[in-house]
Amino acid sequence: MLSFTEENYLKAIYRLSEGGLKAVLTNEIAESVSTKAASVTDMIKKLSNKNLISYEKYYGARITRQGKSHALSVIRKHRLWETFLVEKLKFSWDEVHDVAEQLEHIQSPLLIEKLDEFLGYPTADPHGHPIPDKDGKVQSLKLIPLSDSVVNKKAVVRSVKDGTPSFLQYLSKIGIYIGARIAILDKIEFDSSLEILIDNKTRIFISRDAAQNLLITE
Amino acid sequence: MLSFTEENYLKAIYRLSEGGLKAVLTNEIAESVSTKAASVTDMIKKLSNKNLISYEKYYGARITRQGKSHALSVIRKHRLWETFLVEKLKFSWDEVHDVAEQLEHIQSPLLIEKLDEFLGYPTADPHGHPIPDKDGKVQSLKLIPLSDSVVNKKAVVRSVKDGTPSFLQYLSKIGIYIGARIAILDKIEFDSSLEILIDNKTRIFISRDAAQNLLITE
DNA sequence: ATATTTTTTTAGACCAGACTAAACTTTTAT
DNA sequence: ATAAAAGTTTAGTCTGGTCTAAAAAAATAT
Question: Cβ B99–A108 below 8 Å, yes or no?
Fold first, then answer.
């Protein structure tokens, strides 16, 4: 049984390591969990003793198989709760993060099982991020940033790279949501902005930054 | 903003004081939150400094207006979550307590507002306990133990006094639930057990202990 | 190759919440 | 009325998680 704090560190390490691929540095973790490097060093020792990460001084932390599985279960809970908040309680998708951040630490396997069932076993959360299943398996589509696609391609919005509230608010303002169909009408050479058609209805320009942050399947 | 622990003490004090009427003793609190008297003394000082209770050495703690309002908001959250678990996630009413015990500490007024709406503004939880409204008001019926009623009376089950899982399991086994209609057919002088008719269908004997723990309206 | 800067770790301290052991009040029993 | 028992508080310690300041290691610049 891990504490609230331990789970948050583990989740941060998992995310920063891009799913367990790279080692992550003390300062990166400190930044990510909003604390100081000294505190991170302490916590790293704790997690290391529990075999959730492996750790080499001045080198960084790598997540272990066990650690990864625990991190995925926290992520699963987070994304199921986000789905619940948006689909059932009618939160808008930019309001859910902080609440889900609390709910993800509730300890009850039965609760999560029943919540999953209640939601109809969703495979992606409202931001389009995949929801790991009970065994930690994640279904992954080949996602590319909209900015990497080309004129005349048709695409479906699957996810956002960085879900900051202001970006999400912008998306809902212009009518883009997970599942929206997009056709690329033109690519402006000057500033790499895109002219797109949303759901065969709305024609609009979006900036290069926005296009890089929208993940699609073609 | 109170900590998880502070909220649990406050809730215990509220409950033990029967809604703020009596002062409660250190040992009672210790028993109730499963800790030692010395720890209670410390926490009492903290809550007292925050004006949530008033406190006199060797005498006991009384809850203040502020404390009562906070305790009621925790109870409100607990009961709304229990309702959600039973009505929406199909928990049985003896499985919900421990999970609700965790969920009640989630901090988000918006969440509770939306949950309340989602549930259709219920006034009682699955055990029949009243759910305080946003302002801490509780709707209260005149509840009496079934054991205090008399032969030939008709009654509706409204609540249980002590909702231990084994009692709740027993109730669901014999077909008693909140809202069930009960007619008292006979009172056995020997052991004060009752012969009752549930929903005009099932005739059964229940013990004096059970009858004392079932709260009804006539 | 050495000096400087950056990053990380250690040492020592603090706060919340818990505990044990001992001291002190209050209540109960004789 | 006094002794014993019961209940409560204080004093001191522990653990988890945090911090600052200083030391140590690694990376970078000259």
Answer: yes
